[in-house]
Amino acid sequence: MHFFLLLFIPALMACVIATDSKYNLKKLSPPIFLGFFAGIIVSAFIEFFVNSETIPGSSFFSIMLPMSTGTLLPSIILSALFIFFSKDDNEYKAYSILPLLGAFYSIYTPYMTLAQGEKDSFFMNFTSPLIYIETILFFSCAVKHGFRNFGDRKGKIAVSAVLGIAALLIQPSIHALWYLHSTAKAAYAIAFLLLPSSIFVYKFFCKR
């Protein structure tokens, strides 16, 4: 039952990388390795030192805001560290965000799902991986947009930052809709509609 949960994110990441004409798996092995390593370290830290069980609130924002730390903090911190310490050019840094976060969430998503009480639900096993992929794809586009406009007017960088934060709120927002059973159908609809949209936007509107 957990095969899709375990394999979907790395499989889709491999497909996206394989269809790129410039960067192959070998060239992207550093961010992939770092992402996997960070996913293991963070998951182990949560397992031993943090109570990972989610207690849903009774309103959209009371559920969404606490859950947003699972995408905002890891994505922003990991991306910032990689960009700061990497000696590669900006184009490589921008493109590396997708495999970096894809590798991270390949570990983090299954761990967090299996650690929750709803680990056997259809949503957590089949829909949740889709939402993380969508979040990563849109966030990667925002990072590329930021690098493309780096050095231009500050307003364009601000737009990239807003788009990036909005992308990282996709996952907790859809999860909050699902937890509120009255809007669960909307959560499924949005999740499945955003998947082809995120892939299309990444492949055709986020040119390097």
Briefly characterize the structure.
The chain has helices at 3-18, 29-49, 60-67, 69-85, 90-114, 122-148, 154-168, 170-179, 184-204.
Molecular structure report:
This protein is mainly alpha-helical and 208 residues long. The protein contains nine helices and no strands. The protein has helices at residues 3-18, 29-49, 60-67, 69-85, 90-114, 122-148, 154-168, 170-179, 184-204.
Largest sheet: none
| Beta-strand share of residues | under 5%
The shape, in one word, is: globular
Q: Give the uncertain stretches in residue-range form.
A: none
Radius of gyration from the alpha-carbon trace, in angstroms: 17 Å
- Please give the alpha-carbon distance between the first and last residues: 38 Å
Structural class: mainly alpha
The strand count comes to: 0
Helix proportion:
over 70%
Order of helices and strands: HHHHHHHHH
**Count of helices?**
9
Quote the average pLDDT.
87
List keywords for this structure.
mainly alpha, about 210 residues
Write the layout of secondary structure elements.
Elements lengths: L2 H16 L10 H21 L10 H8 L1 H17 L4 H25 L7 H27 L5 H15 L1 H10 L4 H21 L4
Helix pairs in contact: 1-5, 1-6, 2-5, 3-8, 4-5, 5-6, 6-7, 6-8, 6-9, 8-9
